[in-house]
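Need residues for this backbone.
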């Protein structure tokens, strides 16, 4: 499983909005500048996040986006599900397709199913609020010459 740019950028977009929640709304242009992401790409990601109920749009010349619900109520697993679809390492066998061999069944149960469960359990524990302000700003570094 590999999380695409859409998933990574979507999470960064949400974190940026959450970090600037004191503002009435946040423009995609300002997010793009801060996150070094093209505004056109952010528009596509924001559309998915808005349709999925994670963000609300504010119309107008000085419009932008706000979180649709508190950051504590936004689960990262739900965000990735909306942006990426399922996050399975290997797809489950298709009903009616060729029967799996015993080796294939064993590998799927012992390796792939366990990986799928652990990945899901890890991202289900994370909320947007748990990711906000976890990175130190550039100002926190002190240089001595």
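Answer:
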């Amino acid at each position: 499983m590999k999380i695409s740019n859409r998933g990574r950028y979507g999470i960064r977009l949400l974190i940026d909005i959450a970090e600037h929640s004191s503002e009435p709304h946040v423009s995609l242009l300002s997010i793009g500048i801060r996150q070094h992401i093209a505004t056109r790409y952010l528009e596509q990601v924001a559309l998915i996040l808005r349709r999925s109920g994670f963000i609300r749009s504010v119309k107008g010349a000085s419009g932008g986006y706000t979180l649709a619900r508190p950051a504590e109520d936004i689960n990262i697993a739900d965000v990735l599900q909306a942006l990426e679809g399922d996050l399975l390492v290997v797809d489950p066998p298709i009903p009616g397709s060729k029967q799996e061999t015993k080796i294939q069944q064993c590998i799927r149960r012992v390796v792939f199913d366990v990986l799928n469960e652990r990945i899901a359990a890890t991202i289900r524990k994370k909320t947007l609020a748990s990711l906000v302000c976890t990175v130190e700003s550039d100002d926190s570094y002190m240089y001595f010459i």
